Amino acid sequence: MQRGSDRLSVHRDEEMKHELRDFLRSGHPTRTEEWHDPEPAADDDPVIAGGPVVPNGDRNSLATLRLELARFLGRTSFPAGPRELIGVLREKNAPDGLTASLERLPSTARYGTAHELAEAVVGAGTPNP
User: How many of the other CB atoms lie within 10 Å of CB of 108?
Assistant: First the structure.
């Protein structure tokens, strides 16, 4: 016999187990009214389990690369050359693939925005991490 600060009696515990038994066995909602059930995920819902939400699923797109660069570099990093930007990316623990894509750019170039930088990386044909 269990004693303590339980809010429910042993009999109520057994009742609740009986009420939930079918639900736990079925693996899906057992309610008769559909409006009680949670809404399923839509086809166009963003995938957030695999990392940050990006504008589209294509990892090599200009928009995705621009978003990743802007996330790590911010506005204060520009204007700058690739070497300076690589230093900022390393300080902020950016993915290695992102810094590697900047290492392939010409060292004399200067970029004013993350968009200009992303266009240069995509134009150079380097893959995004």
Answer: 7
Reply yes or no: is the peptide bond before residue 79 cis, omega within 30 of 0.
Answer: yes
Angstrom distance (rounded) from CA 35 to CA 124: 52
Could you list the pLDDT tens digit for every one of the 129 residues in the chain?
A: 556 556 667 788 888 888 878 777 776 666 666 666 667 667 776 655 545 544 445 556 788 888 888 888 988 888 999 999 999 999 998 888 888 888 889 989 999 988 999 999 888 764 444
Which amino acid does the sequence have at 36? H
H helices, E strands: number in the chain:
5, 0
pTM summary value:
0.52
Collapsing DSSP to helix, strand or coil, 18 comes out as helix
